[in-house]
Amino acid sequence: MSLPSNNSYQSIPRWHHTRPCMVESVELYCTTTSDHQKSYVDLKRKDIELHTGDNVFLKVSPWKKVLCFSKKGKLSPRFIGSYEILERVSLVAYRLALPSKLDKIHNIFHVSMLQWYKSDPSHVISPDEVELQPDFSYSEELIKILAQEVKGLRNK
């Protein structure tokens, strides 16, 4: 094994001289990648401007049992309400006029949780169908089986 000579230039690794060039190329790669990703995001983004007095639907998360109304799984409603906007709290948050049955839920929502209401009375789903317990649980009752089918396996 040979020891490095006393010349300080020889003891500096070779990549040290190309480091500024490497940093510039990494920065360029990062900016082009972020611009590329931003172009895809901008295609789906839409700025939603709601006004005081407008009616909106409230988005319900079907996989969270806290706000699951009436049906379970794929058939559960994605939006409930229509609720009036009382005020604009910030650029992306709105205060809604919720009924007294939903007083345990905070009344300020992000704009992504709201869907603009196009006036049609058939859209309204009443939260009266479900009685929430104090721990936000509810009981489900089977009403009627609509269809039943027995499938046989094919023999090959």
TrEMBL record:
Pfam families: SH3_Tf2-1. It comes from Gossypium australe. PANTHER family: CHROMO DOMAIN-CONTAINING PROTEIN, GAG-POL POLYPROTEIN. This is DNA/RNA polymerase superfamily protein. Residues 53-117 form the Tf2-1-like SH3-like domain. InterPro entries: SH3_Tf2-1.
